[in-house]
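Step 1: inspect the first sequence and its tokens.
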Amino acid sequence: MVLVLDNAVVNPSYFCQASLRLASAKKLYYQRSCYCSKIMSQEAVCAYEPSARERKEIILVHRQEAVCAYEPSARERKEIILSKKLLLQQYNEPGGGMCMKVADKVTTIRIILAPVFFIVFNFYKFFNSESSAVVGRFWQIPVLWIIFSVAELSDMLDGVIARRLGEVSDFGKLYDPFADTLFQFTIFLGFVWHNILPMLPFLLVVYREFAILFVRNLMQKKGVSMGARIGGKIKTVAYITAGVFALVVYSLRILFRHFSVAGKTDMYDWLYAVFSRSAVVVFILAVVLSFLSFADYLRVYLKSSKQ
């Protein structure tokens, strides 16, 4: 087919080829313009210097993406769930999280009275007044007995208050034996210093208490707060009994010095000897019971670690 325009002959295929070349040129131009705009945008990004705040946000986003991409194992998922439960239990307790409750405040009394007892008990050693009048030391006897009684009374009351007011918590389960150990260490150290109780059983008590502290930390790592068991309570009663006998011996020692000055010692010699030997025997028995209770705690830990 041939077209005639103004006496000129034109082939139609020429128009088809021209239109194809035009479309190809437009496509090439579009590709090159897109490429140029991409290069320009990259150069603009590279030339941009983010601020310190924007850099922190970028780092945070990268970290969050890395955390989201990480898939924890089954054991890690259990530990995460257990940690969340512990946190919820800790901060949903009555009283609001770690706020000290009434029972915990009663427990704190023993921690406060421990150094007070030690200072009063060794008052004349600290101030080099061993040569002072014996009668002037009588004030120690009632003060020491009051401190000792109040401390042990707080040990009985804090558990009762916690159960009555619904304040039983993991913190209290660990805080109560800590206060007991601190007070018992203090009074036993004073008795050992005054040669009322022997050194070796006291050293065994120290070893036992540090060992039980280690076991409690292992249990806490597993998410279990191991409170006082029946063996530990019997041990505490034995400690209190030994403390009572030792304090009676110290009281008799002051009275004995007074009456030895007055020349009346017959009625106190046998009494002092009986209580002195009884204090040592009860203290050794308390050490034996403490190690039996430690074996019970260790058995509970080994049983829980196998589960």
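Step 2: inspect the second sequence and its tokens, then contrast the two.
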Amino acid sequence: MKRTLIKCGRLISMDDGIGDRVNVDIMVAGDRIEAVDAGLPAAADEVIDASGMIVMPGLINMHLHTFQAGFRAVGSEWLGPDYFRIFYGDIATRFQPEDNYLGTLFGALNQLNSGVTTLLDYSHNIRSLAQAERSVDALIDCGIRALYIHGDGLREPARHLQRALAYGDGPWPIAQDPAQPDLMQQRVHARIHLHRKCRRRRHFVCPITVFSSHQRPAHCACRALSHSGAL
């Protein structure tokens, strides 16, 4: 069993029993923390000098579209409708399985480099089994602890996406032509479909995650699902 000694600068333990301490050592045996104290014996297979650093448990990122990492800083001036029109409604439709792999691999490695060791990858650009598989391959290859959440991508560029978003007040009419007035009925049907999907997954003891972007909290999809007993 490999033993690793970490010589800390400042330890932020997130543990009331240990507290936050300065100039202490951490002994790790295998994948377990064996001891935390000052002046631990140096009998270790590896010694990591973190004396000028903050040492803390790995961060958890609860929501990241990891495949988009290659577009970091692109569109920093965009508003929400711009993102859906330019990226999700156009660029993302051109992604192939290897694009998903490379974007997810780069994004997940960047998370590790930033101190994130647990990631929820909200991969909302899946149009084929190959795209999903290559996205998961990337998470495995980079070594991060991850929960992979897949979502459907658009099959082709959506010309009316920006106008539809400006016309509606939530995610349901996302690709709806604004010339069609029955948006409220569409939202109701979408919610009923979502309730049924959640109940089906509960039957099979599957995890459920909901991405809701409503502007008004009273119309939040999570709240509606909770009130209906679907969660």
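Step 3: confirm your contrast with the notes below.
The chain has six helices and eight strands. The chain has three domains: 3-56, 58-158, 170-231.
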